[in-house]
Amino acid sequence: MSTRTSCYGLALAIASGAALADTPTAPAHPLQDPAALKAAFATRIGHPVFVLRFGLGEHYADALTQNAAASDEFDRFQAIPGQPMAEGEPQKAGGIDCRQKIAFADLDLAAGARALAQAREIAAGNGYKPPENIELGADVFCKEFGWRAILLAESDQMLQIVWKPDGSAAKAQQLRDDHWAKVDMKALQAGSAKPAAPATKPELPQVAGDGRRHNFLDGIEAELARLAAQVGTPLAFKHIGIGATQLSVDVFPPATRKRVATWLFDDTGGMRLWREDETIALDCNKPFGAADIPLKHLPELIAAAPGLIQSMPEAAVKSVQITRGVFCNAPHIQIQVEDDRGYGDIEYDGKGKLVKAEVR
Amino acid sequence: MLRTLFLIGIVAVGPLFAADTPASVDFAWPNLTDFFKQLAGKIPAPVKVFRLKFDRDGKVDLWIQDPARRDHIDSWEYDHGEIKGPVPVKFDHYPSVQALDHHVIELTTIDFPRLPGMLASAREKLKMPDARVFLVELERGDSHGMLTFSDIPIWTLHLDSPRHDGRVEFDLGGKVLNVDKD
């Protein structure tokens, strides 16, 4: 090795040593030493910033910051306990949807650590899984800036506890049946607000197929007869969707128009109730029966459809829908065809008379 | 004769996009001279462009009207010397022949050597001097045949930097039409 190379190597080593000396190291136990964690972030950031989000746990912490002197400069800083902190990663300004923030000087990591400890006590006392971390930031509506812990139960029920940035005024809410309901913090702290046991869902009916390959474009009479036998009454249809390998039938259960059941057939002939939902009030909820549609002639109508658009000689049937449509008219059959370059629509009325055949 | 005119048109592209041009530091400009030469051997002039795209890796996707079936648009791809096509373009709604005739841009009217100048102008307008181009598009702004206020061929240069995304639109003459920065 030449002398020049040695000197260069030595200079490089000194330079990188100096750089490392300036690099802050995250504390080994950030939850026990939040002041040291904040000091490490302050050194790494090196200039005045606002904090939009701060994630805090014993294994990891990260901050999303906005430069106080340049409002469109956002960076993300990360800390791994005991490790030197890397430089911040620039973030796209357009990706920052919510700009609620606090000054870095007001960031109270001790409050965050206390809130996380409290959340873990509540989790243990009420049967939730312990949260791994806590996050300071705004909610999904870009409101209510605070420390936020999410607790999950075995049953997937979710409890959210929110504290103000200084760790005061905790409040909790639980996600029940797709809406949030308030939960008393005192009850949580006393361990008397356990999540409700999950409701057991009834087994949905399922009937195995005959194993033969079915192509529903060739006819659905047999399947509808099987479904009628399963339901036990004549079928009151809302919608029938036909593809080569799947048949979907929406029927109103007997004696109600307020619910609709969706039955699916697979290409082995297997039949299952997929879901049953409440109907939507503004939808067309007037049923139609098998006598209202040309079931016997359906295979011929479907087979003829691709030839009805002259400018699409290579078209094939993509799907078939039978419905009353948005205006709740008499049921009609809509057939979508496609070729390499686009789509076409064919429509028959309930008696099988051609209404339209056009390129889309 | 038509083929000769087409070749004259692409020779004009040469100074900027010839194969022996050193790689630009701005953007991996594709070798359009080679692409259009190969294309000229496969389709007759005039070439009518529905849409043109260059991506960051220097790949080109050119949609052109089939001169024999004007209701058909085909995609031709060019990837560092290799040409692939025609691949039928499938529309959600079939445009009419009239809409397609209006939408397409004749290749010889496109002044490709203006592009590096447009890129410099885009960086300046966006105040993003170090931004990288990741997509260049050319298409008439008539929303596939529906008349709009911007019913002219529009170059769109998409740029990004670690902190921002930007988009600048130009007309064929290089005039800035719109600047958008996130």
The global form of chain A is elongated
Q: Please, how many helices of chain B?
A: 5
The percent range for strand residues of chain B is 25-35%
**What is the gyration radius of chain A calculated from CA atoms?**
32 Å
Silhouette of chain B: globular
Structural class of chain A: alpha+beta
- Spatial extent as radius of gyration of chain B: 16 Å
| Record field, number of beta strands of chain A | 19
Could you state the order of secondary-structure elements of chain B as H and E?
A: HHHEEEEHEHEEEE
Overall pLDDT of chain A, averaged?
Answer: 91
Tally of DSSP β-strands of chain B: 9
Helix content of chain A: 10-25%
Oligomeric state = heterodimer
Number of helices of chain A: 6
Number of domain units of chain A: 3
Strand content range of chain A: 25-35%
Poorly predicted runs of chain B are 1-16, 18-24
**Biggest interface, chains and residue tallies:** A-B, 17 and 16 residues
Mean pLDDT of chain B: 85
What can you tell me about this protein's structure?
The complex is a heterodimer of chains A (360) and B (182). Chain A is of the alpha+beta class and 360 residues long. Chain A has 3 domains: 23-106, no CATH class; 109-189; 206-359, no CATH class. Chain A is built from 6 helices and 19 strands. In chain A, the strands form 2 sheets. In chain A, strands 1, 2, 3, 4, 5, 6, 7, 8, 9 and 10 form a 10-stranded antiparallel β-sheet that branches. A 9-stranded antiparallel β-sheet of chain A has the order 11-15-14-13-12-16-17-18-19, with helices on one face. In chain A, a hairpin with a 6-residue loop joins strand 2 (61-67) and strand 3. The longest helix of chain A is centred in the N-terminal third of the chain and has 20 residues, at 3-22. Chain A starts with a helix and ends with a strand. By secondary structure, chain B is of the alpha+beta class. Chain B has one domain. Chain B has 5 helices and 9 strands; from the N terminus they run H-H-H-E-E-E-E-H-E-H-E-E-E-E. Chain B has helices spanning 2-11, 14-17, 32-40, 97-103, 115-126; strands at 48-55, 59-65, 73-79, 82-88, 105-106, 132-140, 153-160, 165-170, 176-181. In chain B, strands 1, 2, 3, 4, 5, 6, 7, 8 and 9 form a 9-stranded antiparallel β-sheet that branches. In chain B, a hairpin with a 5-residue loop joins strand 8 and strand 9. In chain B, helix 1 packs antiparallel against helix 3 (32-40).
